[in-house]
Structure of ArgP/LysG family DNA-binding transcriptional regulator:
Amino acid sequence: MQYDPSQLAALEAVLRLGSFDAAARALSVTPSAISQRIKALEDRAGAALVIRATPCTATPAGARLARHASEVALLEAALARDLGQPAPQARLRLAVNADSLGTWFLPALVGRDMLFDIVVDDQAFSADWLRRGEVSAAICDHARPVQGCDAVPLGRMRYVATCAPDFRDRYFSKGVTAETLSRAPLLQFDGKDALQHHWLRRVTGQALLPPTHRLPSTQGFVEAARLGIGWGLNPEFLAAPLLSSGALVAMRPGVPEDIFLTWQVNRLVAAALAPLTRAVRAQARQSLLPP
């Protein structure tokens, strides 16, 4: 089944910008024209594609069709480059965990002739974006490929349980035990972040539920630990200078938490994204521990 490129462009713009009016401005047409194109595309697809709310969002069929449109654009741009022709900037939607985005990942995007739409989600959940067809590539925390994807091992991202010296003296003067850990406030990125609780079970053998701060910021996580707001597992890459200076202390130096990361790419666009995949692998080799 073939789809009208102008209708696919309208769908992509509505979902990316969140409204028919914004899509119309971006495509230099009227909102009525956008509405007509979306309606025609829905008639052809035989399903609703856009949830008309504020902002507009995709139905499952709409998300799948929008990804199809972006993948076609990526393939056409790669073909144009291979033929030595001017290539339009295609848009690539990725799912990346916040700690990778805040530490090592961004340099891999430098020099890529495309536009990036990055979704931030926990590495344990980023594969769901691939399964739903809402992204074309993602950083995940498991080696098994998502159906229809290639999985490239990247390495292990090491985390160290850290806190400020004053925090240690206040809460862990009797040692880092199940009893003291159950009372000391911990830092959690969001409701999906299970890293601290995994570490707690490893250290104590118990499912502890200590008082918890929610703080969805990689750099803010480190700063909150430095200021003594709570303790948390911070990327060793970020925590190392503060550990060296004594601004942070490792709560259990011999018990880090390693997260194994893979780069998963939809096979339909794997060839078009091969240069990006090479850049991601190279950057991971510089920043992560071996797989």
